[in-house]
Amino acid sequence: MLSHDPTSGRDDGPRYVLHLPMTVTTEDQALRFAYALARSLALVPAVEVAGATVSAEDAQHVRRWVFCDRILADRRRCPARADHDGPCDPDR
Fold first, then answer.
1. CA atoms of 78 and 82, how far apart (whole Å)
2. What ranges in 1-92 are assigned the alpha helix state H?
3. Distances (CA, A) of 15 to 36, 53, 61
4. Burial of 50 by CB count in 10 Å (0-12 exposed, 13-18 middle, 19+ buried)?
5. d(CA 24, CA 36)
6. What is the pTM of this model?
7. Which residues, in sequence order, are CB contacts of 55 under 8 Å at separation 6+?
């Protein structure tokens, strides 16, 4: 499973987001690296894998989803890559 319920075990305290700059020359390279990194961290409960996005350094307000952003019936995000072909499948 790639994502967990981001509200489980969470209090109303502050949350923080980690920004980890990296240098690659194409958006495709950034998406592939982000996908691999996110999948490798999927078992860490504090990591919301399905929320991974990529942006250009000079346009960080414009983000591209790494994983599909559609919400499934069980309220999790689809675990497939963004812009995947076919229907969303919770067992990918």
1. 9
2. 27-40
3. 24, 17, 19
4. buried
5. 14
6. 0.71
7. 61, 62, 63, 64
pLDDT (tens digit per residue) in 15-24: 888 888 888 9
Q: How far apart are the first and last CA of the chain?
A: 8
Query: If you search the block for the tokens 């675990």, which residue do you land on?
Result: 79
- So what's the pLDDT on residue 10? 55
Q: Could you tell me how many residues make up the chain?
A: 92
Q: In this structure, are residues 82 and 74 in contact, taking their beta carbons and an 8 Å threshold? A: no
Distances (CA, A) of 29 to 7, 19, 25, 91: 31, 17, 7, 25
Q: What distance in Å separates the CA atoms of residue 41 and residue 76, rounded to the nearest whole number?
A: 17
**Higher per-residue confidence, 47 vs 92:** 47
